[in-house]
Amino acid sequence: MQLRKTAIPGSLILICVMGSYLQAQVSLPSIFSDNMVLQRERAVPIWGHAQAGETIKVSFRDQSVSTVAKSDGRWRVDVPTGKAGGPFEMTIESQIKIVLKNILVGEVWVCSGQSNMQWSVRNSFNAEQEIASANSPEIRLFTVPCVASATPQVDCNSSWVVCSPQTIPDFSAVGYFFGKQLYEHLNVPIGLINTSWGGTNAETWTPRENIAGTPGLEQIRDRLLAMEQSEGKSDQEYLKQLAAWEKASRREDPGNTGFAKGWAKPDTKLDDWQTMDLPGRLDSLSGRCDFDGVVWFRKDVQVPETWAGKELMLELGPIDDYDITYFNGKQIGATGRETKRAWTVSRCYKVPGELVKAGRNVIAVRVVDNFMGGGFFGTAKAMKLWLNKLEPSIMLAGTWQYRIEAEIIPVETTLPKPEPQTSLGGVNSPCALYNAMIHPLLPFAIQGAIWYQGESNAGRAYEYRTLFPAMIQGWRTVWGQGNFPFLFVQLANYMQQKPVPCESNWAELRESQTMTLDASPNTAMAVIIDIGEANDIHPKNKQDVGKRLALAARAKAYGENIVYSGPIYDSMTPEGNKAVIRFRHVGGGLATRDGEDLKGFAIAGADGKFVWAKAKIQGDTVVVWNDDVAKPAAVRYAWADNPVCNLINKAGLPASPFRTDSELMK
Known about the structure:
The protein has 666 residues and is an alpha+beta fold. Helix content is 20%, strand content 31%.
């Protein structure tokens, strides 16, 4: 089975958004919905789209603010939120009236990064109990779809939901446990915006201006410029290679015989059709687990009289591999070979008003799967037919009728399928996820951000010293809310332990993360060098990650006088054959996690050859030595992919890995 990530091109998102604009004089981006949380004690931006020159009035908590839409239809007001509380309603009035309900006022945090931030509650430690106890109506959740785009987008397809055992299983575990801790300590509503995607690098989350204008990021900048200049050329070559592969392996579309037989028409007899629940996979339709072929799907929908004759939007989620979609017998859209990684693209098609009638309407979808697992790969809530954001959608998940048109039995099954090059706007291309997963949120008022990422940049740690602070500064600039708290997780211990001191890409990346504390103001780092797993890059213990980030938030965002960090290296002083290490954040004193002697220290003389060292705690310092090293020149602690180490402060927080010879290693 092929593992595939769901990506929705920004252009398709815009089609859906514009569909709602056409139906209503005033509209809002998805970040404003029922159940949302607004940042307390702020004048928060509320914005949207309307007809040029139209007057818009926004009312909230007995206050009203009005404005006039600009020539391009954009409008914005800043609305005071007052103290924490709720639930409240907000009205947005022009020629129509929008009412947003069940709104809370409290603390809003963005949760971003790669797979360890995306990692769900259902896949974390003690998942069954955590899910069962997640009945927390004052915690609200918003998940940004995994989208990549070459240009900044204005909206994303999502909505706020109330935290419950039904809504929490697929939400970010780190985000949830962080928010849960904040709620317990602050006793105010918490809004969590999860915008994360596994396997992604930091540059794809960074605004273009901060890549182009930051010294030290020239290689990323040049890669971006090369993509911009070659856009389209590599696509044409890929399409030629893909067509040749399909022909050589006999995976070509055998021809649309189903349409000729009338399978798209509403009056077609369905005596020989079977049923299947969607979303779902095609694997076993013919009795074989490796089915490839062409399958037609049909579903009757009942459309209300008020929708008759009006343009609708049909969303089906990602379909693997290709599709042609019909409404009442007429083709309304298709996604084929010309779309790179078509199996990852969420289908979103306009239904012309002349095809829409009151009562029974028929949706038909011809699906071509010519490689590995096929079918409808989205979520149930992604399959819907809708008029605008003001009326409930017609949900399409559930029972559909289907009929196999043809099987595809390939030859040359070992012939590798061509893969498109990462191109402008592709996942992990510079700026692509900033454009599609951060920009649509701007300038929604937030308290701060938490970040868990770095694995995908571990081979470029020195570059990360510049890239990560540039990304943080970029977010702060575009959000326009000053140096808001930015709290991040240092990489956990991972991979096999080494018997001798050696170099480590992961240790270097952790060092770059630590250096960000000095490079970027109002930041804090959660060290988790004690909770990783040697054989799994995704530690299941996300509870402690959330707790340590919450400690940092309580100190940095809310001014509590608490110990929020483990010991951070400050300086080294040679004293004879020993080295004395001083720390910041000693938290009432130094200790070992297991009560045993210190572990994880290495020492070197002028030759730079590191050997394991003895170490002991002496007040707020650690004294390090090896009898064979007469004049210490450098000390390292926990400098490995998966170090054996045990230094903590008396608050129980682990010391960050470090090396005193960092400047010598540039």
